[in-house]
C-alpha cells in the first residue's frame, strides 16, 4: 500500500507540475490533486527535494516504459521510412494527452536539475530500447560513431518536441526526415 500511495502521490505531483509549473509544486497542491487529506504528501516526502526526487524518478520510469513500447511496436526497423514513422509516432505521443503533460514536467525538471545534482543524476539519459533500435539501424547502414550520432539525433528530436510544446503544432515530418538523413551521412 505504501508503494502504491507513493506512486499515486508522484503521479499527482507530475500533474501539478505540468499544470502549475515548478512554483505551483507544493505538498498541499499534491494533496489536493491526489484527493488526499492535508499532510499526506509531507508524511511520505518530508521535503520539497524528496517530492521532486520522487516525481523525477516516476517520470523516468514512465518515459522508459514509453520508449520500450514504441521500440517494440516498430521492431525491427528495416527502412528509413520506418524510422521516420517511429520518430513521428514518438513525437506525437510526447505532444498529446498524458505524453504532453509528461513533456511539460520533464522540461521543468530538466531546468531544475541544473541546480540539483541528485535530479540531474536521475534524469541522465539511459540505455533503452528506443536508443538501441536507433543504434542498430545506424550500424546496419555502416554509420561511424554510432554513439554520438544517436545522441545527437535524439537531442535534436527532443529540441523539436520542445519547440512544438512551446509554440504549438506537430513536429514537421520534413524536419525529422532531415535529421535522420544527416545522421546517416
From TrEMBL:
Domain HTH tetR-type: 3-63
Keyword DNA-binding in record: yes
Top-level division of the source organism's lineage: Bacteria
DNA-binding region: 26-45
Keywords: DNA-binding
UniProt-listed InterPro entries: Homeodomain-like_sf, HTH_TetR, TetR_C_31
Pfam family, any one: TetR_C_31
Protein name: TetR/AcrR family transcriptional regulator
Species this protein is from: Streptomyces bikiniensis
